[in-house]
Structures are given as structure tokens and as C-alpha cells.
Amino acid sequence: MNIITSRSFLWFNCRSIEYILRLLLATNDWLHACVTVERFLVVFLGVGFNKATSKKYAKRMIWVIVLVVAASILHDPIHRRLFDDIEEERTWCILRSTPQLEIYDRFINIFHFLIPFSLNFILAIGIIFYAAKQRSSIEKKFTFRQQLRKQFSRHKHLILSSILLVILAVPRLIISFLPNCMKSPKEYQLFLAGYFISFIPPILHFFIFVLTSEIYKKEFDILARQKWKAFRRRLNPNNE
Questions:
Q1: Could you say which architecture CATH assigns to the domain 7-235?
Q2: DSSP secondary structure, 172-193, as one string
Q3: Are the C-beta atoms of residues 163 and 79 closer than 8 Å to each other?
Q4: Distance between CA 100 and CA 22 in Å, rounded?
């Protein structure tokens, strides 16, 4: 097995991998919250919702979220150092932190976890209630409670997806509160599992958002059939 001895390579990986991973995951959670905010505005504003204006502000919000998240976790790469363990003949990537920095790091982890998912859940309920209120004012023959049940059945995928995202992200949050070092090769399974658990929510987003929604599922089926027909035409152009 080849051993990586390049000091610059080790230094780059020590400071960048964890930082980039945290940046991508936190940004991903905030972008989902922004999508839910846009859905709520569509229901709340109705015909007054301007799609062109929404796209313009969405592009700006992406950059704002990336920059804010990147700045909020910048302390991580700044305080990381390489430490040469002469006794064990290995190089460690360590995070030198103070009690105040640890408190800040935990606060940031909870903030980037709690706020986006709270927005997703609260606004999903808001969409259901406001849509039921609008429909009950238009269709007088149905009561608000009947419309509420109807809208809940129609938009239940929003609440379901919010709950699933929280369940999938909880292990990542728990692991972030378990400071430890891999002191022997036998312990690598825990850290490797924690590393890959962080990728589970992004991998399952298709199943969470598409397969839990009847509308998205139908759109996906239509798109899949169109792509499959186009693929078959390319394979057999003479059959047209």
C-alpha cells in the first residue's frame, strides 16, 4: 500500500475536505428551505406571484446562501493543523479549538440544521392551511375543515419530505457532536460510516421529493417515457 507523503497534499486535504463537505451539505439544506419559501409565496400571492422576479431573486439568494454558509464555517479550516506523530509514525489532521470555538461550532451546526428544516415544516403546514382557506372562501359548499382535509391529502408530500429530511440528517448532526480521533485501524469503520452517512440525504432527495408527490411522479413518468422514446429512435432511426 502506497503512503501519501506529500506535505502540501496532506495540508490541502486536511483543510479543505471537511470544509467543502460541510459547505455543500449546509447549502443544500438552505436551498431546500428556499424552495419551500417560494412554494408558500406562490400560494400566498396567487396571481400576484411574479415568476420572472422570483427567478431573479433566486439567483441572488444562491450566492448569498453560499457566501454566508462559507463564512460561518470558515473557522474550521483556519484552525486545522498537521501534526507529525513520531511515535506512531503517522501524520494527524487536528483541529485546535478553544472552548468558545467549540460552543460556536456546535451553535453553527444546530443553526444550519434546525432553521432550514423548521422552515420546511412550518411553511409546508402554512401552504396547506392557506390553500384550504382560499378554497373554502371560493367554494362555499365545502367547509374549511373539509378543504383542510382535501389540501392535506394533496400536499401531504411536503410534510412527509420535511420529516424524512430531518430523520436522515439527525445522524449527521449527532456525529458532529462526537469529537474523537481514529487511534487504530480498527476504528476506521465508525468514521467511514459517519462520512458516508452525510451523503445519504442528497442521494435520497429524488425519492423524497418526487416519489412522495403524485404531481411530480406523473411529470417524471412523462419525462421518462419521452426520453426513452428518443433513445429508441436514436438506436433504430430506420424504424421511424
A1: Up-down Bundle (1.20)
A2: HHHHHT------SGGGHHHHHH
A3: no
A4: 20
Tell me the per-residue pLDDT of 180-230, one tens digit each, with 9 for 90 and over. 555 545 555 666 666 666 666 666 666 666 666 666 677 778 888 888 888
Quick one: which H or E segment has residue 93? strand 90-95
Q: Which DSSP category does 96 fall into?
A: -
Cell triple for 100: 468558545
Neighbours of 201 (CB within 10 A): 21
The half-sphere exposure of 199 on its side-chain side, counting CA atoms within 13 A, is 8
Query: Could you state, in order of their start, the residue ranges of all structural domains in the chain?
Result: 7-235
Alpha-carbon distance of 201 to 199, in angstroms, equals: 6
Residue-wise pLDDT for 8-66, tens only, equals 888 888 888 888 888 888 888 898 888 888 888 888 887 787 878 888 888 899 999 99
**Cα-atom radius of gyration of the chain, to the nearest Å?**
24
User: What pTM was estimated for this model as a whole?
Assistant: 0.72
- Looking at the chain, the number of H-run helices and the number of E-run strands are 9, 2
